[in-house]
C-alpha cells in the first residue's frame, strides 16, 4: 500500500491511474479536493478496491497521523500543492500554507510513523517529494540547462514555496536519516490538465472562439514533458533512486510559448477547421506576468544515466495526443467551467482574477 497526496489533481491522477495499471499494490489517495482536485479524473477507478480515497488536508496533523497508523503505507508520493504561478502572485498565503506548512506536517506524520517500523520496513520505506524546475530560477542566455547542483534561485511565491519544501525534505534525510527522494520536473502537459494552464487554456479557448492570451512577447521558453513520461520517471525513482538524492526530470523539449500556441493552432486547423479563418488569428498579446522567468531547461542526464529513464513521447507526438484528448473530453472541460470551482476560489481566496474565469483573458 502506498500513499499518494494530491492524487485528484493533474499529475497526481495521471500517476494513480498509471500506478494501478502497472501494480497490484493499492493506493490511498489523500486529497483535500481544492478547486484543482477533481474526482472525475478517477471515475474509471470507481469500482477498483485498490484505489482508496481519503479527503484530507495535508496540514491537518491529527488526521495525517491517524491515516498513517490506519493504513501503514510502504511509501509516500507527495504531489499535493498549490501549483499555479499566477495564483501565487495574486495570493501567496495558500501556497505558503499547503506547500510549506503542509509538507512539514506530512513529513512529521510520516517520520513519526516511520520510527515505529521494524529495521527492515524502515530501510524499505520511501518518501518521494515531487518538485519543480522553477526552484532554479531563470536561465541566462549563456547558461547551461539546470542540473541537480544548480543553485536555488526561486523567483515567484510558488517557486519559493516549493524551494522551501525541497529544503525541508532534504533536512529530514540529513538530520533524521529519513529515506527521502526528490524529483524536480519541467512543465508537464497532457490529459486531465486543468484549463488555467497555457496548453489546455489555449485548446479550450480556441475551440470556444475566445482570445488566446500570450504574456509579454511570448518568447519565454519552457521545457515540456508529456505527463505519462513524468509518471514513469517517478515510478523509476521510487523503485531505483538512491535515498537522499534529487533527480531532475525533463523532456528535452525547449519551446517558446508563442511557438507552442502556434503549434496548437495548426493542429486544431487540421483536426477541427473553422468555417472562416485560422485559430492563430485568436492570439492576443497581453500584459506580462510580473517577474516572469524567461527560460527553463532541464539536464536530465542523471536520471537517464543512473536509472535508465527516458521519455517515450516527443513533443510532436505528445501534443497531438493532448489536443485529441481535449476534443474527446469536452464534457470534462464543461464541468470544470460550470462555475463550481469559482465558488471554491471565492470562499478560500476571497478574490478572483481574470484566470478564475477559465477561458477569459486579461
Ligand atoms: P494540481 O494543482 O493539478 O493538483 C494539486 C492537487 O493537490 C489537487 O488535487 C488539490 O486538491 C491537492 N491539494 C492542494 N492543496 C492540498 C492540501 N492542503 N491537502 C491535500 N491536498 C491538496 O497540480 P499538478 O500540476 O498536478 O502538480 C502536482 C505536483 O507536481 C505539485 O507539487 C507541483 O508543484 C509539481 N509539479 C508540477 C508540474 C506541472 O507542470 N504541472 C511540473 C513540475 C512539478
Ligand atoms: O516548470 C514547471 C512548472 O510548470 C510547475 O512547477 C507549475 O506547477 C506549472 O503550473 C507550470 O508553471 P508555468 O507557470 O510554467 O505554467 P503555465 O501553464 O501557467 O505557463 C506556461 C508559460 O506560458 C509561462 O511562461 C506563462 C505563459 N502563459 C501562461 C498562461 C496561463 C501565457 O503566455 N499565457 C497564459 O494565458
UniProtKB/TrEMBL annotation:
InterPro entries registered for this protein in UniProt: dTDP_Gluc_deHydtase, NAD(P)-bd_dom, NAD(P)-bd_dom_sf
Keywords on record: Lyase, NAD
The name under which this protein is listed is dTDP-glucose 4,6-dehydratase
Query: Gene encoding it?
Result: rmlB
Q: What's the catalysed reaction?
A: dTDP-alpha-D-glucose = dTDP-4-dehydro-6-deoxy-alpha-D-glucose + H2O
Presence of the UniProt keyword Metal-binding in the record: no
CDD domains per the UniProt record, alphabetical: dTDP_GD_SDR_e
Ranges for the NAD(P)-binding domain?
A: 3-322
Required cofactor(s): NAD(+)
The domain of life is: Bacteria
The GO terms this record gives for MF are: dTDP-glucose 4,6-dehydratase activity
Q: Name one GO biological process term.
A: nucleotide-sugar metabolic process
User: Which family is this sequence assigned to?
Assistant: Belongs to the NAD(P)-dependent epimerase/dehydratase family. dTDP-glucose dehydratase subfamily.
EC number(s) given by UniProt: 4.2.1.46
Under NCBIfam families, the record lists: dTDP_gluc_dehyt
* One Pfam family it belongs to: GDP_Man_Dehyd
